[in-house]
Amino acid sequence: MLTAPRVLIVDDEPDLLDLMEITLSKMGLDTRRAATVADARGLLDKENFDLCLTDMRLTDGSGMEVLQHISETKPEMPVAVITAYGNTNNAIEALKAGAFDYLSKPVALDQLRTLVKTALKVPEKKSTNAAGRPGELLGNSSAMQEIRTQIAKLARTQAPVHITGESGSGKELAARQIHTLSSRSDHPFVPVNCGAIPENLMESEFFGHKKGAFTGANNDHEGFFQAANGGTLFLDEVADLPLAMQVKLLRAIQEKKVRKVGATQEDSVDVRIISATHQKLGKMVESGKFRQDLYYRLNVIELNMPSLREHPDDIGSLSVALLEKIGRERKTQLDKEALKALKNYAFPGNVRELENILERALALSDNDVIQASDLNLAPAAEFQPSSSQGQPPSNLQDYLDRVEREALLKALEQTRYNKTAAAKLLGITFRSLRYRLERLGIE
Predict the structure, then answer these.
(1) Domain 6-119 is in which class?
(2) DSSP tag of 249
(3) Given a cut of 90, is residue 291 above it in pLDDT?
(4) Integer distance in angstroms from the first to the last C-alpha of the chain?
């Protein structure tokens, strides 16, 4: 006979203990209660539990002490903390210390039920040694092994994660891995490119709108938060959000509620936030371009994706996997000189650039063995734009690609990576800019 999951509730308010105990009992759960840190430790040492809910303020100490005790003795057990309304610093501190999630007082029963259901589905730790299955981060270097270990840990919490790293280093793939290994894997993963949404449509796209809310709103519309309900919302290039939208996003994250444009009431949403950018958010906070309070909400845990230059030993295995993907049924290999050339290349566009280089080489190669000449590479140090005034470049296409790359990157930097503005600055269409960025492996 299956036993009901057991939940330990720690709080010094009898009324709240009664309310949570009744709610969880109706969900078919077996509950035990404790009013102090000492009582909680005693029960944890004697009995087994599947989840712990603890208040942060207790008469003989703090919920952080309960969290620490569980982390040391039963690290696999999820812990959710209950904080005073508006006290986000306590919640962030607990999440950094390993808490699964948090609730704010007064406790909303619908949020309590959702949190408990999600927590009880937390998967056991999975192996982080596998590399090569579809959708996984490839590579057996120590850098990539460490990334996979971190991802496995992050998958077991609901804490917001901020992923940093250069363009093309695999930030979205890491976010998808966190979602796939988490208790939310049965629900949607919704990726959003924050830099590609017109500012006047942002609120509607994120939170949805009601029919008739504005001209052209002919039907009710679900936003990204509603689409990701129960799952994960991935905010790529979050640094591109305008300040006005940052305020609205902060409120949605803190309150776990959103209001559609044109609606009179808010709707509860259960969404885990993972964000990413190749820019330095800390510096943007210092310059006033990004809100400090939102930064602290998003950057609870940071995951830094290494550039391909930091794990060159993976270039061989990555190339094999990418050639299988690109070539489909065509069996193509790299010769020794081609592999050596790739390992000596700087890869400013990281793995995405490697894929583009191999795709181009596959098209140029006359047989099933790609040679160094097919890669059309040149060391970065050889790129001298001013050489046009002297000797002509030895490889015209490579020279033109590098000039184009430099012009695109300068335009993107000048416009704070706003692609629409960058295209206008360069005198080309947005579609043309997007094509050129994809061709050159620039995110």
Answers:
(1) alpha beta
(2) H
(3) yes
(4) 54
